[in-house]
Amino acid sequence: MFVYDLLRKANHRLKAAKKARAGRFISPVRRIERVYPVKGQRVCAMTFDDGPARTPSEPDLGGGKPLTLLLSGILTEYGASATFDVVGDTSENYPDRRGEPDKFYWGGERYDHYPDFERDADGGAKNCPELIRALLDAGFEISNHGYRHVLFGKSPVYAKRKPFDGLDSVVEDLTRLHRLMEEQHGYTIRLARPPHYIDGIAGGFTSYDAYDLMGYHYMAASFDGGGWKPENGSFENDVKGMVEPMRQALERDPAFFSGQIIFQKDGCNMSRKTPVAAALPRQLELLKSFGYRVVSVSELMALSPFEDLSPEDECFEAARLLEAKRVPIGYRTNELRPDGIMTFGELCMALCPGEVRLARIRETNGPYGTALKWAAEHGVTGGGNVPVKGGDFSRLLEAAELPSSVPDKASFTRREALILLSEAMK
Asked: For residue 61, which phi and psi values (nearest 5 degrees)?
């Protein structure tokens, strides 16, 4: 366990560094880890990766009931909802060799296999349509964890794994699951999480590019429920290892989980056990005792879409309206930074038609390159990082065929600009 804790800490530092880099530019795709807490409410979200699973829990705590139904039943019993981050089918991930228990490759050396090696037919949306139907009928949300759960790109932790070879392969895989959900269940997916959080894609692309093409936001998490690690001496130890960190966090700060997204597993840990089946009711009991409501990620975002924007802020409704129209106004870190200055490049990005941006997504021309080119084609030019002036603001609105009544100012806070944008787009 010591090794995994070290790797986890190293991964947290890496994530912090990646977040700092990602937060430099606004994006149509935001990485949702948490949102700004709603005043007077304790609300958090839960997500469950890698299902659905027809196999029972291990050890069997539900009389042979499929793990997915056991977990969803527990959630329903506590009046909780969740987002199930599902795969399509891992049976195509052969030839392969069985992975060693307690190792990162426990489910297969070259690929993952869910719910376990050579048991692929008991997992995934393709093989378990009755489980998907049961989740939807119970009101749970579904997100896209990749049809085959293949890494988007190379990873030093999963060096033996064979990743996709580029952006088109990633999008094709995501599209297979997206269409399966639409065609078989009439359900449209809006969120996704990359397998093992590997973002880089061959050719200089990232998961943000893939999710932009799919119309998704990147569903991350801010708290690890802990049900994935190898066995720590006994099953009961593993269950305690999932419950005690949550208890300690709540005892330090009862509002700790407000606005947070909790990561869980709809499947085995690395020792082929499912401590989540025993830990989940204890976790939900804890959250309930501290006054929490547990919801899906989309329900959480409907209450408060951004990490740093209070629902009481004067531009909250404007930002929510623009967010609903999928106008790029937030940074990849899910920050809005309302007190910052709106730059020329940011406004171009917000107003550039989505079809133009997506048609040119494979062009390597910088973060705002396509948007700046679109503006120039309409006779409006400027520096990407300079404050946008009132005259340019008006001309950009005209280029987007929107009403252009804007004060003649040298600069605008992002709060002011978003209110003007929302009024133009109503």
From this structure: -105, 0
Alpha carbons 40 and 16: distance in angstroms, whole number: 29
Q: Is 252 helix (H, G, I), strand (E, B) or coil?
A: helix
What is the separation of C-alpha 425 from the centre of its chain, rounded to a whole number of angstroms? 27
Alpha carbons within 13 A on the beta-carbon side of 411: 10
pTM value > 0.85: yes
Q: What CA–CA distance (Å, rounded) separates 360 from 357?
A: 5
Amino acid at 161: R
CATH classification code of 33-300: 3.20.20.370
| pLDDT tens per residue, range 173-232 | 999 999 999 999 999 999 999 999 999 999 999 999 999 999 999 999 999 999 999 999
- Please give the C-alpha separations between residue 12 and each of 15, 17, 252, 326, in angstroms, as whole numbers: 5, 9, 21, 29
The string of DSSP codes covering 329-372 is -SBTTS---TTSBPBHHHHHHHHS-HHHHHHTTTS-S-TTHHHH
Nearest to 228 by CA among 107, 323, 71: 107
CB 131 within 8 A of CB 123: no
Smallest CA-to-CA distance from 173 within 198, 147, 149 is with 147
The CA distances from residue 115 to 104, 106, 112, 381, in Å, are 15, 11, 9, 54
Instruction: Give Cα 103 distance to the centre of its chain.
Output: 25
